[in-house]
Design goal:
Elements (H helix, E strand, L loop, with lengths): L12 H8 L3 H9 L6 H14 L5 H8 L4 E5 L10 H16 L3 E5 L7 H10 L5 E4 L7 H9 L3 E4 L10 E4 L1 H14 L4 E7 L4 H17 L2 E7 L4 H13 L6 E4 L2 H13 L9 E3 L16 E3 L2 H18 L7 E3 L2 E3 L11
Parallel strand pairs: 1-2, 1-3, 3-4, 4-5, 5-11, 6-7, 6-8, 8-9
Antiparallel strand pairs: 10-12
Helix pairs in contact: 1-2, 1-3, 5-12, 8-9, 10-11
Keywords: DNA-binding, Transcription, Transcription regulation
Pfam family, one: Peripla_BP_3
GO molecular function: DNA-binding transcription factor activity; transcription cis-regulatory region binding
């Protein structure tokens, strides 16, 4: 493969446009708003930019556009000794999608004694960032209300209220659970249970509602068992009650992969073979799920698609002044593994 041509002094955007056979505006879009171009056009223009060694003057671009080309991401609080692998993957996807669009990501958190709203206001007042990307969005999330009142661009991983900008992207957790219950029913299971966290998180409630809808659709006997918090001892206790009761379910669908780990522990203690005596499925597709024995059937979140859609929507607001009229719902991706057992297992 030929080495990249070193940057030639005086290479201009017009030079790139001429070699690529496109307009100057198309080159500008490739640099500043790649989401506006067809993939094949973006690929051709990007290849010429790389070949000619063209690098735009970032300070001049910022002055002309009035943007800093920086997106702020209020990072969720995490435990360094037990990090959230799912949100780590989401952050990686966000950084990649932002970089492709020519933006950088600034991780932020409130200082001690500072509210979330005060931290947002500090960045807005300093003109440090062009917009915010929010995750872990809760019902009546105060960050959404605050940024809506401020009229400042944001996109959210999670649904906003009807009176707020619809610049959100979410996973259809309910439909994913309906589909998962269908997979369980296809294997002959009639008594099924849903193990949930009683945290009140909107995505957990959606997964529970999807489970119940799937149970009704397939005429199954279903029960919901909620665990207070995410304490491992409580998860084990709840699972033991499920598996030692009179009407023991033959399949358990957990609202999160970490809940399924407790099911594995108790099932083995009770002499039950997962995939044979008990089907188990969950949600999130954490890295550990593929290493369990047997590997866990779960729902994968399309993190790269989510990140790309969020960045695209945010840049529509920042660069075009256009706020999406409706949120975007993406499907979950079922990952079927041996924990579910073979078709027609019962």
């Amino acid at each position: 493969m030929a080495a990249r041509r070193p940057r030639a002094r005086g290479v201009t955007v017009e030079d790139v446009a001429r070699v690529a056979g496109v307009s100057r505006q198309t080159v500008s879009n490739a640099l500043n708003a790649p989401h506006r171009l067809k993939p094949e056009t973006l690929e051709r223009v990007s290849a010429v930019i790389e070949e000619l060694g063209y690098r735009p003057d970032q300070s001049a671009r910022s002055l002309r556009s009035g943007t800093r080309r920086i997106i702020a991401y209020p990072a969720p609080v995490d435990d360094p000794a037990n990090p959230n692998a799912l949100m780590g993957g989401f952050l990686e996807a966000v950084v990649a999608a932002s970089g492709e669009a020519g933006y950088r990501v600034l991780l932020v958190r409130p200082r001690p004694g500072q509210s979330q709203e005060q931290a947002l206001d500090e960045l807005i007042a300093a003109r440090t960032v062009d917009g915010f990307l929010l995750s872990d969005v809760l019902r009546d999330d105060p960050r959404l209300a605050h940024l809506t009142r401020a009229g400042f661009p944001f996109a959210a991983f999670g649904r906003t209220g009807p009176d707020q900008p619809q610049s959100w992207v979410d996973v259809d957790s309910a439909q994913a659970m309906i589909d998962m219950v269908g997979l369980v029913a296809a294997r002959g299971h009639r008594r099924v249970a849903f193990l949930a966290s009683s945290s009140g998180l909107p995505w957990m409630d959606d997964r529970r509602d999807g489970f119940l809808a799937g149970v009704r659709r397939h005429g199954l006997a279903g029960q919901v068992y909620s665990v207070p918090g995410d304490d491992p001892g409580e998860i084990v206790r709840a699972t033991r009650e499920l598996l030692t009761g009179r009407d023991r379910p033959t399949a358990i669908v957990a609202g999160g992969d970490w809940l399924a780990l407790g099911v594995y522990t108790v099932a083995r203690a009770e002499g039950l073979e997962i995939g044979t005596d008990l089907a188990v499925a969950a949600f999130d597709d954490l890295p550990v799920t593929a290493w369990l024995q047997p590997a866990l059937t779960t729902v994968r979140l399309p993190l790269h698609r989510i990140a790309k859609a969020l960045i695209s929507r945010l840049l529509q607001i920042i660069e075009d002044g256009v706020t999406p009229r409706a949120g975007l719902v993406l499907p979950g991706e079922p990952v079927v593994r041996p924990s579910l057992g073979p078709p027609n297992a019962l």
